């Protein structure tokens, strides 16, 4: 009887350990939308280094994707945003990310048409300030924000 009880107790402990181990992998969700006025709904995000974030990005507008598509691109610290965006304007086939600047992207959601969503899950990088932009031609000067990592 006693032995049986201790086996049950041991099994219970193992179960608990498994539950606790699974919990930290859940990402914090950040919902961002872009509209026909070239505005992001969120222009500042604060996070902790090493945290898992899931960005769900929605194009809330109604204009056609070819005229008013939006993406969400988080860039490495120190990236020349102007150079990145200028070179990426012609890179329609790669979600307006110029292949030569691919290495400057931490995470991104590709170009979304009206009422479409995409998402990306990533690990928050080291403390610092990171820019995010929409690289659809002509948008990056207005459609931008920052991720501040503490
Ligand atoms: Co845009």
Description:
With 150 residues, this protein is of the alpha/beta class. The protein has 3 helices and 8 strands; from the N terminus they run H-E-E-E-H-E-H-E-E-E-E. The protein has helices at residues 2-22, 65-68, 81-88, and strands spanning 28-34, 44-47, 52-59, 70-75, 105-112, 117-123, 128-133, 144-149. The strands form 2 sheets. The chain has a 5-stranded mixed β-sheet, with no helix packed on it. A 3-stranded mixed β-sheet has the order 1-3-6, with no helix packed on it. The termini are far apart. The model has no long low-confidence stretch (mean pLDDT 90). It binds cobalt (II) ion. Cobalt (II) ion binds at residues 34, 38, 70, 134, 136, 139, 143.
Key structural traits:
five-stranded mixed beta sheet, binds cobalt (II) ion, alpha/beta, globular, 150 residues, 3 helices, 22% helix
Which SSEs are present, and which pair or pack?
Elements: H1 2-22, E1 28-34, E2 44-47, E3 52-59, H2 65-68, E4 70-75, H3 81-88, E5 105-112, E6 117-123, E7 128-133, E8 144-149
Parallel strand pairs: 1-3, 2-8
Antiparallel strand pairs: 3-6, 4-5, 4-7, 7-8
The structure holds cobalt (II) ion.
Cobalt (II) ion binds at residues 34, 38, 70, 134, 136, 139, 143.
């Amino acid at each position: 009887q006693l032995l049986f009880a201790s086996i049950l107790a041991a099994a219970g402990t193992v179960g608990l350990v498994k539950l606790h181990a699974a919990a930290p992998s859940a990402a914090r969700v950040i919902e961002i939308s872009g509209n026909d006025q070239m505005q992001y709904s969120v222009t500042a995000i604060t996070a902790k280094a090493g945290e898992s974030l899931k960005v769900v990005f929605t194009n809330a507008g109604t204009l056609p994707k070819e005229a008013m598509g939006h993406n969400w691109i988080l860039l490495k610290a120190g990236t020349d945003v102007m150079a990145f965006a200028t070179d990426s304007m012609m890179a329609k086939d790669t979600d307006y990310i110029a292949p030569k600047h691919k290495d400057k992207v931490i995470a991104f959601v590709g170009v979304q048409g009206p009422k479409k969503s995409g998402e990306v899950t990533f690990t928050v990088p080291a403390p610092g300030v990171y820019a995010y932009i929409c690289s659809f031609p002509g948008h990056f000067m207005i459609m931008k924000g920052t991720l501040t990592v503490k």
